[in-house]
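The passage that follows is intended for readers who have already worked through the single-chain material. We present the inputs for a multi-component assembly, then the predicted structure in tokenized form, and finally a short commentary. You are encouraged to pause after the input and sketch how you expect the pieces to fit together before reading on.
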Amino acid sequence: MGRSVQDPALCGISRRTVLKAGAAAAAFVAVPVAAPSILRAQTPAVKIGILQPVTGALAHDGDLGRLGAEIAINEINAAGGIKSLGGAKIEMVFGDARSTPEAGTQEVERMQAEGVSAIVGGFASPICLAASQAAARYDLPYLVDVGVSDQIMARGLTNTFRFSPGFGKVTQVALDNLTAINERAGKPAKTVVLVHEDGLFGSGLAKLLQTELPKRGFEILETIAHPTPARDMSNVALRIRSLNPDLVIPSNYYGEFVLLARTMQQQRIKPKGVYAILGGAASNGRFVKEFPQAAQNVIDCNHWHDPKNPKALALRKAVEDQGKSFAYNVPLNYSNLLLLADAIERAASTDRKKIIEALNASSFAGHIMPYGPTKFVNGQNEGATPINTQIQGSDIKVIFPEAFAEAKANFPAA
Amino acid sequence: MYSPQIILEAALNGLMTGAVYALIALGLTLIYGVLHIINFAHGALLTCAMFAVWLAWAWLGMDPYLVIVPLVPLMFALGYGLQRFVVGPASHGDDGNILLVTLGLSIVLENVLLALFQSDTRTLDTDYSFQVVALGPLLLSYPRVIGLGVAIVVTGLLWLVLNRTDTGKAIRAVAKEKLGANLVGIDVPHIYAVTFGLGCACLAVAAGLLMPTFYVNPRIGGAFVLVAFTVVVLGGMGSIPGALLGGLFIGVVESLCGLFLGDSLGQIGIFLIFIAVLLVRPTGLFGAKA
Amino acid sequence: MTARDLIPIAVLAVLAALLPLVVTSSTVLNFLVFTLIVSLGAQGWNILGGFGGQFSFGHAAFFGTGAYVTAILQLRYGVNAWAGLALATAAGALVGWVIGFLSFRSGLRGSYFALVTLAFAEVFRILANAASFTGGAAGLLIKLDVRPANLQFDDRAVFYWLVLAFVTATLLLTRWIQRSRFGAQLVAVRENEDAAKALGVDSLKVKLRAIALSGAVTALSGCLYAQYFLYIDANIAYGSWISVELLLAPIIGGVGTVFGPVVGALTLHGLGEVAKQFAGRIPGIDLIVFGGVLVLAVAFARGGILGLLERLRDRGRGMVTRGTKEVSHAGR
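Having made your guess, compare it with the prediction:
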């Protein structure tokens, strides 16, 4: 149930599509009413695998990822499907990666059996690693939606593409932007405390920051690791208080970040800035809504949509109208689907090799991320970059780089 | 390295966190002491209680501390029912089976919660969540000070129930000598279920104390239950004062380990204590006898 | 061992080996490979838990050791994958022996033993997650280099046959244990340790042999997992999920029986897939089924599925007594 989504807009197929399908075919379409069913037979749907962890520890993120993909597929289909394939509709083959790599692999095998042309998703790095490898056996194009581990792209798999930035890139941009924001404010921040979760994401980031921050004139007073879930943040807060850093750089998941921010507020710790990198809560609308005080002025460097793109704003509104919280998973998966549809359109085929070729040649700019035209080098989108947001008042505003900024950085925080 | 003030604050923080561990362990140790079983569903039941507190806050706008009042009898009833109608009959009175049944229960409960609430992390906010009590130069979290007080009171109450009431005496009789208790007309399955219910009622209190400052998601119970096992083993399985002292002790150890080793490795301290106590003195540091 | 002991194993192995010739679906093969890897580890649990009566809640300690040893040997020391497999198995035996020595010498049994194994697995998990030697939280990625010499195969069927061979070997091992003097001593210790001691059984030695064997077999399964998915991290290799799976399978299938772990693993994973097909939108539905089946199995089918079948068969024959190896926990 609910595994593949049939297109509800099929009945709305226009006459033009019918004509496009070719004269020979059109000859058979004697009665217009019969068109939909015959059309379906003529232009088989393009199946695309959507792999997201919708159960287990990552279920929340998986849900949002699926939502983004669903909206994109509906839009593509409503706009006439893949035109070079006679208006073929995209059919979603959904797979639950259950938050584990082996379940991800199993779903890839199932999608392969169902004949998908490409797979999008994975979310967590371990799932992306295992799933893209399984897909590589079949030359099945695999688009990583979020997974930031640099290992994913370092294996030389020709089927694997990543539209979004990886760890190295995110850290580098985060540091560049931090330096720039700091300089612009008259260099108020010199000392830093890193707080990171001890998993793949937090530890990897901390390691990179430890070598990079000193090069840019920041002094790291201490690096504090904590587990997920953490039962208590009092000690972390105590240590921050005793060190009294100018800047706190946290990288952790939602629950822990909320706990940290609240504990810091309680202990009356007020650094000049809190600069999260890929923060779990700092770009989450719910955090702002529920804890406006603790959330105030937190800066994040994260995946974020282009706030000046009207399509992005419409998407955000559509998601919020559904009563769901908007997070970066939605625009990323949405954009990935558009990117893939564009590649299939240009390949004019569901042949996997041709799709991979088309992806490699892609210069797709119709997405809603602040990346510019797409350009894959060894599978990695060169233009991919995170941007800086800050929680100001009751909203999350883009503050840097200026080309996308909606507001001025409030730094050092008053 | 750290100023004495910080170390003192960390120790006090640990003491207050330990009070909540003690409450969770209290239920566990009570169940162990009487039924001689390890209740693996304890963590999942704690999660249930935490969700109940959150729901009451989110839907009815109830204060989390106030929720404790109706939640205690509710959790008692849940625990009573579970033991009477599920764990007891399913395990045919065998230790190994009970381990497995409670494990199965915990898997079911955790995933039912997941199906109902998704894996979202939920938090609640109260006026006093951020309040602090200034003790000289020390800033103590107001909800945690309350937690410490309540934990001590609940331990005292539980001790009174066990030692001063008829039911309590029956519970102790069953714990000591099941067969004999049965012979003198004590309804053993009923007493078992009452004990299980009391253990769950402790969780209701713990949940109410945790929620003002903590968060809940369907898997959060696991974070507490391993610590609670450690506390129970340390305090001596089945010992009520042992659970309180063990909880406070573990809280302080964890906090200081966290301060000096980092929170991530600080966790290892707990497990090493746990293993060492099991290997060297399985009756626990505070337990008098096996 | 007699021919009657071996024939069922041989028949099953041959039938299972022929499967890839009939079923070409990679989905099914992939499912079977993973299920067989789990059933191999579960067989390891069964040696200690089923025959020895020592319920471990932390077999992840062995599974993870197998996975990490082979991965580290290959990545850091350039050791060949096959040699890594052998060494990983040996490492599992060693870890088993050490944990066993520490806990059995202190006289831990029942719930206490379950708890101490759980704690050991957690310590391993935290260490593997923190140490840079184990790749820390980023985990270890075994290099994708599909060559038989690297224990990586182009065809899923080959890996399936390899895992099947190991499963068959452990089935034979278990059958041997069941029939041997060592096995008899092990069961004696399970049923009543004090009585066994009184009869001159060196219970510590018997239990240590069992846990070492158990650790070796489970480490082998962990090693195969790493080799198949080519990626491990602390939460995969030492996570509590695997401890639970390895214990569920024999208990559902038939604890202390030769085929129990395999039957249990197939049943559980099969049920999980079915549940997902019917209610894929409900998160965690397969796990709810797992937990429910566990409770039901303990409540109504104490010998697991095999015990249930046996009972049905015996009832059909009108027999009163049963010669099965169903576990009775009396006297523990």
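Commentary: Chain C has one domain: 3-239. Residues 203-229 of chain C form the longest helix (27 residues). How closely did your sketch match?
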